[in-house]
Amino acid sequence: MKSDTAEVQSNRMLLVKETCKVKGLLKLKKKPQLFVPIKKIEETEVNWFEASAICRTMNGSLASIENERIMEAIDQHLAPEKPADPWWWLSGNDLASEGNFVWANTGQPMNYTLWSTGQPNHFKDNEHCVNLWVSGGLFTMNDLDCKRHNFFICERDY
Question: Which SMART domains would you find in this protein's record (predicted)?
Answer without folding.
Answer: CLECT (SM00034)
